Amino acid sequence: MTEQSTSALLLKRIAAYQWAVLDKPHLTYSDISPLLRELAVRERITLTRIGNSFQGLPIHRLTIGNGPLTFLAWTQMHGDEPTATAAMLDLLAMLSEPACDDIICDNWLSQVTLHIIVMLNPDGASLTRRENAQGIDINRDARALQTPEGRLLDEQVRELRPDIGFNLHDQSRYYAVGSSKKPATLSFLAPPFNAAGDVDGSRLRAKQLIAAMHQAVSNHRPGQFGRYNDAYAHRCFGDTIAGCGVSTILIESGADYHDPNRQSARTLNVVALYTALNASISQRYLQYSLDDYYAIAENQENGLCDVLLKNVTQENETGDRYRCDIAVNETAPGHATVVATGDLTELGGFREIDCDGLTLCNAKGFCAEPGDSVTGTAYLGLLSQGYNHLLCQNSRINIATDLPLLQCLSPLPERTGPLPGTPAFFVFRDDKKPCCALLSTHWLTF
Ligand SMILES: [Zn+2]
Q: N or C: more exposed end of the chain, with fewer CB within 10 A?
């Protein structure tokens, strides 16, 4: 098969074996436990309870294959980073079916052993937070080993002695690929094992495998993959495990356009892992060089925002006009704030709106009376009069619109402007009257 037809077949297979119930923004142990039971009865898969979390939730390892080349992957070490958990369960669903051997090779099970620890931090997952139940970041516990979850991972590495390790995380959606203003849907790193950043044989293999994975995923989302820099992190598991002679690969799942549950990254994680398995069996990874690895653009932190308003005109108190861009991020569901203003030409936005010809109206609060009802039509009426927030001190008002609405106890200063940290509720006017608004991340013209 050509590379293109293999790639198309792989995507078809992945789509067929994805667990629909895992298309969610967050995953906890109760989401995955029925699937673990379902996978455990499949002939090719062995499920092992390797231990418990601090609060006693089970931590499992799934194993497929019995070959000499050993892979160990672990997911959701950070409780609020679930994307790879779904991806690895998809991968196992696919690989456990003999019908899918056509995308690898017939005897692959006798060549590799793949161990996957899914959801290393189920307590953090229950709390939707990064740390475990002790409040400790497990990924800073590789040396101290004061968390049961960290000790379990350490024991697994010592027991299984993997050739290749996959440390699977999620990153902030605002990472961009270099200066491209595109989101890093996946980011890669072959972590260093010392401060000098030396590259020994196992690290070279990690970099070559990343180059192979990068090429495979780039077929699907060109230009949406980044690379972390080589800074050494002494306390982290990736760096520590890399120091044990394991070819260690960090993959961080990130955002894509119109993809709140990171389903693109979920699919691409499977493509990446499949590629690493396949390239290791065939040794095809040897054709890649360090240059191929370093050709992957470096990640840029905060290179993106949720909404970028470009070329907004503002007026100061004396009526002088100036222009600026405004970047807005959603900080909680339905609540967005300004993160930066000024010349933001180096920033990208998941949504970009050219506000050329639009002037930001001064903040203006509408005094609601007790018992008032704000319907969608009434709200539009207020916006078109330039009101950007509702004053509802001591008054009970009935909100009957689905549009985001800002309620304040006291009036916002007239010239709050787009200062960083201020709520993103702005009305804009053309040369005649108010005509559009940004309501949290929602852009409205009227
Ligand atoms: Zn993480």
A: N
Query: Angle 171-177-182 (CA atoms, 0-180°, nearest 5)?
Result: 95
The rounded Å distance from CA 198 to ligand 1 centre is 24
Mean pLDDT of all residues belonging to the chain: 94
Q: How far does residue 87's CA lie from ligand 1's centre (Å)?
A: 15
Q: Are residues 26 and 131 in the same domain?
A: yes
- Are 157 and 15 within one domain? yes
Residues 126 and 201 in one domain: yes
Whole-number Å distance, alpha carbon 136 to ligand 1 midpoint, is 13
What distance in angstroms lies between residue 444's CA and the mean position of ligand 1's atoms?
Answer: 36
Per the structure, the complete domain to which residue 376 belongs is given by 304-445
Report the CATH number at residue 372.
2.30.40.10
Alpha-carbon distances of 335 from 278, 329, 423, rounded to whole Å:
44, 9, 7
pLDDT at 46: 98
User: Please, are residues 387 and 374 in contact by the beta-carbon 8 Å criterion?
Assistant: no
Give the Å distance between the CA of 236 and the centre of ligand 1: 10
Q: How far is the CA of 339 from the centre of ligand 1 (A)?
A: 23
Q: Give me ligand 1 centre to Cα 60, in Å.
A: 19
CA of 82 to the centre of ligand 1 (A): 9
* Residue listed under structure tokens 């789509």: 15
Here the CATH number for the domain that contains residue 60 is: 3.40.630.10
Residues 6+ apart with CB under 8 A from 423: 335, 336, 337, 389, 406, 440
Residue spans of alpha helices (H) in 176-286:
201-218, 237-242, 263-282
Number of domains in the chain: 2
What's the pLDDT at 418? 85
How many whole angstroms from 404 Cα to the centroid of ligand 1?
A: 31
Dist. CA 239 → ligand 1 center (Å): 14
Residues in the chain with pLDDT < 50? none
